[in-house]
Amino acid sequence: MRLKGKTGIVVGAGQTPGDTIGNGRAAAVLFAREGARVMLVDRDLQRAGETAAQIAAEGGEALSIAGDWTRAADCKAYVKACVDAWGRVDFLHNNVGIGAGDGPPADITEDAYDRIMRVNLKGCLLSCQAVLPGMRTCGSGSIVNISSIAAVSYAPGLTAYKLSKIGMNMLGTQLALTNAKYGIRVNTIMPGLIDTPMAIEGQAQARNVSKAELRAARDKRVPLNGKMGSAWDVAHAALFLHSDEAAFITAVALAVDGGQSARIG
Question: What is the DSSP code string of 43-109?
């Protein structure tokens, strides 16, 4: 019960269909298991509702709401919904990201660049802005943004995705230092290769390879046990950062990657 008595928001709490669990859903389920009441946000309300149903089946408490975090009005609306339901927002967990259409710097289209930067970076900023007034009033709060090791590692074929994740890391630092005096902590998690539906289902289809073949190729790139992580690995890192055990931790960018970002060559 490391989040007992806390209320918070998970943005990107639904997931694409697949045979594993996604980062947003795993985080939401784990937070609820640890005692939190959770507002689940997703562009697809049905998918957020599926996460809420799983939490309810385990005896947890969650509500779901449709929201597009690239719209400031939507961000304010889901923050208001959390406050209306439970009185405050103790934590915000931002777990939204896209990469479709990206490419090398010489080839990426303007439309793809604008879309990826808008969704990955602008949306994160707007979501954080929406919770800050209430957290400042309360004198406390935790924000965790899900970035990627693409921010610190070579990522062939990526331009906008990598730039957006570098931006998220710096956004976390800026938010942490400008809000530390209010007791608000802001940290960033950089997942490595994680076995999620979005990563496996989408890439297998895009590359026209089997899921087994794709998983084997990704596993080989991870130093620790030669195997990808799961969404639960990211969720447990986030649980720690949102908990009181991390009360003296802010402005951190934590790699959850099995050592992949430390590898040279």
Answer: SSHHHHHHHHHHHHHTT-EEEEEE--TTSHHHHHHHHHHHHHHHS---EEEE-----TT---TTT--
Q: 222-256, pLDDT tens digit by residue?
A: 999 999 999 999 999 999 999 999 999 999 999 99
What positions carry a catalytic annotation? 161
Tokens of 119: 């969704």
Rounded to two decimals, the pTM is: 0.96
Question: CA nearest 35: which of 63, 64, 59?
Answer: 59
Residue 133 burial class via C-beta count within 10 angstroms: exposed 0-12, middle 13-18, buried 19 and up: exposed
Using CA atoms, how far residue 67 sits from 105, 199, 240, in Å, is 31, 22, 26
Average pLDDT, the chain: 96
Cβ atoms of residues 119 and 68 within 8 Å: no
Map out the domains of the chain with their CATH numbers. Answer: 7-195+230-255 (3.40.50.720)
